[in-house]
Structure to design on (542 residues):
C-alpha cells in the first residue's frame, strides 16, 4: 500500500436502491403526524462511530450523524457537510470546503477539526476499532494502526474551521463512496472525552449532527426513538418528526404487529414470503450481502485442512438452505455479492467462477463424504465434533439448525452442536477467536469487490477464522498498487478464485429479504451497500 499507484475507476453498476413505498400507522395519517414505527432484526451494538461494525449500528449512525457526503438513491454521492470538493489530477490530494452553520445538537459548530479528531481516534490502536482497514490508502494509516506512527501523522488536516485536506498514498477509486460511510463521519471531541468509557453505550452520552437525534436507548433495551434534530442545518427538508424503533427477532411477531398497525414495516419468514408475494406492500430488498461459514483455524487447527473445508462446503445443500430461510435469498457462488460491479458489460462475479470452485460450492453428498474421509485420515481422526456459532434471531436459528442437519446427514461421522446467542455476545466470541465454526455474514461497505475480499487478509479484524494464503494476499496487495484497471480486475478475480477453491470461508447465500411495508411511507432510501437506510427525505403520504 505504500507504493504509488493510480487507479482508473472501475465502472460500477450501483446496487439497486429502493425508494421504499411503505407506510405509517393509520392514526398517523389521519392526524397529520409524521411518524414511523420501524424494526431491526438484531440488537443495537454501539453508537460509537469508531467502534461500529454491524448493520443495525450503521443504520442508526447514518441518520443521526452526517459526513462530507450523504448517499442518495442508487448510492449517488450528494453533498452534505462538503459544499465543494477539489481532487488533484493524480487522485491523491483532496480538499473539501465545509458548510458553515452546521451545528451539533449541543450547539457547537461542526468544523474540520471534528473530522480530524474522528479519523485520528478511529485509527489509534488504543481505540480498538475493528474497521481500520477502510482507512488503508490514506497517508500513514497502515503504519498508525500497527503502532509504528502517531495518529497525528494521518493524512488529514484542518485548514481553519471550514477547509479539510486529505492526502492519499494512491488513488482510491471508491474514495467518495467511503466518505458517505458513517465510519468517516465527524465526532465531537468534547463529548467523547466527557463521556469517557460511556461514549457510544447509550443515547444520553451522545451529541448528533444529522437529520435526527436518538433518544431512549440505554445500551441493552430493545426500543428507542429517533426524533427530528432541530439543530440540523437542513431541518426544513426533514419531514418526519419521529421514528420509533424496536427489535423484532421473530418474523411472525413482526408481521402481526404490522397487521395491527403497530409496525410500518416487517421482515417476512419463508412462509410469509410465499403467502404474501402478490400483496400490496410486498418489497424485496436486495443487499450486497453474503452469509458464510468461517472456520477457526487458530483454535481448531484441523480446519487448516483444505479437504475438510471443501467437504463441509459440498455437504451443504445451498438451494434448500436458502429456501428454508425464505425471502429471495440467492444461492452463493462467490464471496463477493453479485450486482455491485460491472466490467465490460458483465458482472464481476461471472469472471470469478471456475469449474473447480463451482464443484466445491455445489451439493454433492458422495464427493463430500469422500473428501471428508480423506481429511479425517490425514488428520488421524475417525470423526469430528464442533460447535456452530450463530445469532439468536429466528433466521439465524433456522440457518444453523438446517446446516446442522445437512452436515450430519451427509457426512455421517460428524457431530455439530449449534450455539445461538445474542448478536453482541456472538460477535465478541468471533472477534476473540472463541468459536469453532461461525455462521455470519458481511454487507459490503461500498460497490467494489475489495470490500469483501479484504475481509480475508491477515491483518483484518473481521478475518475471524484466521485463514491465510500467501498468493491471495499478494494478489490483493498488487491490486492496490497498480494504475492499470484491467490488471486490478484480474488480480481481484484471481484472488477470489483462490479463496473459493481453497474454501477459506464457505459462502452460502446472498441475502435478499422480503418485507411488507405500508403503502403510505414515501422517500425512504434503501441502498444494498454501506448503511442501508436514509430517512432524511422520508414522509407519510396523506
Amino acid at each position: 500500500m505504500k507504493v504509488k499507484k493510480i487507479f482508473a475507476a472501475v465502472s460500477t453498476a450501483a446496487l439497486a436502491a429502493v425508494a421504499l413505498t411503505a407506510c405509517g400507522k393509520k392514526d398517523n395519517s389521519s392526524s397529520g403526524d409524521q411518524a414511523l414505527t420501524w424494526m431491526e432484526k438484531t440488537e443495537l451494538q454501539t453508537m460509537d462511530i469508531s467502534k461500529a461494525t454491524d448493520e443495525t449500528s450503521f443504520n442508526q449512525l447514518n441518520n443521526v450523524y452526517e459526513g462530507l457526503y450523504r448517499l442518495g438513491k442508487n448510492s449517488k454521492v450528494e453533498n452534505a457537510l462538503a459544499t465543494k470538493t477539489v481532487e488533484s489530477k493524480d487522485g491523491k490530494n483532496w480538499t473539501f470546503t465545509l458548510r458553515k452553520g452546521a451545528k451539533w445538537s449541543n450547539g457547537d459548530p461542526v468544523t474540520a477539526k471534528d473530522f480530524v479528531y474522528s479519523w485520528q481516534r478511529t485509527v489509534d490502536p488504543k481505540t480498538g476499532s475493528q474497521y481500520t482497514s477502510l482507512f488503508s490508502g490514506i497517508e500513514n494509516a497502515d503504519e498508525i494502526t500497527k503502532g509504528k506512527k502517531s495518529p497525528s501523522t494521518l493524512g488529514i488536516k484542518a485548514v481553519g474551521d471550514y477547509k479539510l485536506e486529505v492526502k492519499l498514498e494512491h488513488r482510491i477509486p471508491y474514495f467518495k463512496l467511503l466518505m458517505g460511510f458513517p465510519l468517516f463521519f465527524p465526532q465531537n471531541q468534547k463529548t467523547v472525552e466527557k463521556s469517557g468509557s460511556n461514549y457510544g453505550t447509550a443515547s444520553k452520552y451522545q451529541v448528533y449532527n444529522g437529520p435526527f437525534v436518538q433518544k431512549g436507548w440505554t445500551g441493552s433495551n430493545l426500543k428507542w426513538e429517533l426524533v427530528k434534530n432541530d439543530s440540523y442545518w437542513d431541518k426544513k427538508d426533514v419531514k418526519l418528526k419521529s421514528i420509533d424503533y424496536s427489535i423484532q427477532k421473530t418474523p411472525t411477531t413482526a408481521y402481526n404487529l404490522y397487521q395491527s398497525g403497530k409496525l410500518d414495516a416487517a421482515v417476512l419468514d419463508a412462509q410469509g414470503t410465499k403467502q404474501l408475494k402478490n400483496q400490496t406492500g410486498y418489497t424485496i430488498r436486495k443487499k450486497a450481502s453474503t452469509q458464510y461459514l468461517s472456520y477457526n483455524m487458530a483454535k481448531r487447527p484441523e480446519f487448516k485442512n483444505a479437504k475438510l473445508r471443501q467437504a463441509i462446503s459440498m455437504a451443504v445443500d445451498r438451494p434448500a438452505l436458502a429456501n428454508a430461510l425464505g425471502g429471495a435469498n440467492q444461492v452463493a457462488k462467490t464471496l463477493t455479492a453479485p450486482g455491485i460491479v460491472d466490467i465490460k458489460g458483465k458482472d464481476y462475479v461471472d469472471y470469478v467462477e471456475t469449474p473447480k470452485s463451482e464443484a466445491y460450492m455445489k451439493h454433492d453428498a458422495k464427493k463430500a463424504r469422500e473428501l471428508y474421509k480423506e481429511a479425517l485420515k490425514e488428520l488421524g481422526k475417525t470423526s469430528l465434533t464442533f460447535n456452530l456459532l450463530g445469532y439468536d434471531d429466528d433466521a439465524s436459528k433456522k440457518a444453523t439448525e438446517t446446516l446442522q442437519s445437512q452436515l450430519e446427514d451427509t457426512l455421517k461421522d460428524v457431530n455439530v452442536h449449534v450455539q445461538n446467542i445474542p448478536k453482541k455476545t456472538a460477535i465478541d466470541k468471533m472477534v476473540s477467536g472463541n468459536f469453532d465454526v461461525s455462521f455470519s455474514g458481511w454487507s459490503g461497505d461500498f460497490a467494489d469487490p475489495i470490500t469483501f475480499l479484504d475481509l480475508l487478509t491477515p491483518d483484518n479484524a473481521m478475518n475471524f477464522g484466521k485463514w491465510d494464503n500467501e498468493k491471495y494476499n499478494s494478489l490483493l496487495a498488487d491490486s492496490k498498487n497498480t494504475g492499470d484497471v484491467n490488471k486490478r480486475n484480474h488480480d481481484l478475480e484471481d484472488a477470489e478464485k483462490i479463496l473459493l477453491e481453497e474454501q477459506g470461508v464457505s459462502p452460502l447465500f446472498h441475502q435478499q429479504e422480503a418485507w411488507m411495508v405500508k403503502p403510505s411511507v414515501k422517500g425512504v432510501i434503501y441502498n444494498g451497500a454501506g448503511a442501508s437506510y436514509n430517512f432524511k427525505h422520508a414522509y407519510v403520504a396523506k
In short: The radius of gyration is 23 Å. The mean pLDDT is 91.
